[in-house]
Write a structure and sequence with these properties.
Layout lengths: L2 H8 L4 E2 L13 H11 L6 E4 L13 H12 L5 E5 L3 H13 L4 E4 L9 H14 L3 E6 L7 H10 L3 E6 L4 H11 L4 E4 L8 H6 L4 E4 L6 H13 L2 H19 L5 H12 L16 H17 L1
Parallel strand pairs: 1-2, 1-8, 2-3, 3-4, 4-5, 5-6, 6-7, 7-8
């Protein structure tokens, strides 16, 4: 897919990050993953991100990423598949090239491992990954990779295939500066954990699409919420926030790492068990799983 086609596609609707399915021995469960991606592709996602953050990119071996991408591409139909890549520059390039070879339509460049760096170093890192591939790249602004508006402007001038900016920081004033400065040069994606609770503020900042983790197990509800935001239907959006997203976030915040664990648990609740999370993440305990089931059942009854 040409980078500009991907840019238009990403900006056309709701996005999601399928979890990566694992067997009991924590090896990649390709059959289960294929069934899940095929199911999600029927709910009109603008793009699906294989081996992304919710897909436990951080726990996958570099050689597993193209396996996940190939599996997603085999069943996603016309839905674009965007692969995660990251870590240090050399490894990010290696993963990016293997994902492109496996058929990925684009890349999400996650923050480099551990190190904090100056803007010049971050620019060099992003530029090196962009230059290594021909597909579109979305940079994830989060943790130790926080780019300024000026840095992004320079990257846009030097990297034609840099097509997107995903924000996971939450400084809306900085996002407004970026969207104002760069206008439609990039597609802008909301990337806060459980982004739905931040979506109204981001919409006002010019970020009108986002990655929905809960799309994994309640895709129809995720789309209903997104469409309510788009149409200005505050009654519907606020009801879904109160009935589902606020209780969900309260449970998620009980323990570290639950932003991913909760999504796999949600799939278990709806009868599509993706297996456990890989260490160092931990699964929900029985009490927490029961609480999540109650939250999900409430919105299923009103769907």
């Amino acid at each position: 897919m040409h980078p500009n086609q991907l840019k238009q596609g990403v900006g056309s609707g709701l996005l999601s990050f399928p979890v990566t399915h694992f067997n009991p021995d924590l090896s990649f469960n390709e059959d289960g993953y294929r069934r899940h991606v095929e199911w999600l592709a029927n709910f009109d996602a603008a793009a699906l991100f294989a081996a992304g953050g919710t897909g436990e990119f951080f726990s996958l071996a570099p050689g597993e990423v193209p396996m996940v991408v190939k599996a997603a591409k085999a069943v996603a139909g016309t839905t674009p598949i965007i692969s995660g890549t990251g870590y240090g520059t050399a490894l990010a390039i290696e993963i990016a090239k293997s994902a492109e070879k496996a058929g990925a339509d684009g890349l999400l460049l996650l923050p480099p491992y551990l190190m904090f760096a100056e803007q010049s170093g971050l620019i060099a890192h992003v530029k090196a990954v962009c230059n290594a591939v021909g597909i579109g790249v979305i940079v994830y602004n989060r943790d130790n990779c926080i780019l300024t508006a000026d840095s992004l402007s320079r990257l846009c001038d030097e990297c034609p295939n840099l097509i997107g900016f995903k924000d996971g920081v939450g400084d809306v004033d900085k996002v407004i500066e970026i969207t104002t400065k760069l206008q439609d040069r990039l597609v802008y994606v909301g990337g806060m954990p459980t982004h739905e609770v931040y979506a109204q503020a981001y919409f006002a900042a010019g970020v009108t699409t986002y990655s929905s983790a809960v799309f994994n197990f309640v895709p129809a509800l995720a789309q209903r919420f997104y469409k309510a935001l788009q149409s200005g239907d505050r009654t519907t959006s606020q009801a879904i926030l109160n009935d589902f997203f606020f209780p969900f976030v309260a449970l998620r915040n009980k323990k570290r790492g639950y932003a991913v664990s909760m999504i796999k648990a949600g799939l278990k609740v709806v009868g599509q068990d993706p297996g456990s999370v890989r260490p160092p993440l931990t699964d929900l305990n029985a009490e927490e799983l029961s609480l999540l089931a109650t939250i999900i059942e409430k919105v299923k009854l009103t769907a």
